[in-house]
Write a structure and sequence with these properties.
Layout: H1 2-10, E1 13-17, H2 35-42, H3 47-52, E2 56-64, E3 67-75, H4 80-94
Antiparallel strand pairs: 1-3, 2-3
Length: 104
């Protein structure tokens, strides 16, 4: 935690992907031989914030291979305001963030 706080003192927010890979086929994460490795690789970016209790904003951005992808923004402890501020700036810059899915 001390190292992350030091890093976040110099760089107040960290922005990265929700997953470190494109969305995988349905149930690929349940594969007994490869599923755990897939999850471990895919969540490398989100694990530090989750494990340390850092504030996070995650939101969808676009479609990849027919599945929704997104970004995650995190900051130091008690700095939810920075996450929300950066999320608002990104949202204003890109307009509609998630595609509107047609209803049946």
């Amino acid at each position: 935690m001390r190292e992350w706080s030091g890093f976040l003192a110099e760089y107040p927010v960290v922005i990265g992907p929700n997953l470190m890979c494109t969305p995988w086929p349905l149930d690929a994460d349940l594969n007994p031989e490869a599923g755990l490795d897939l999850i471990a690789q895919a969540t490398r970016f989100i694990l530090p914030a989750s494990a340390l209790g850092l504030p996070v904003v995650a939101f969808p951005m676009t479609l990849a291979n027919g599945a929704l992808t997104g970004i995650q923004i995190y900051a130091d402890l008690w700095r939810e305001d920075l996450c929300l501020e950066v999320a608002e700036i990104i949202e204003q810059g890109v307009g509609q963030i998630a595609p509107i899915m047609p209803t049946s």
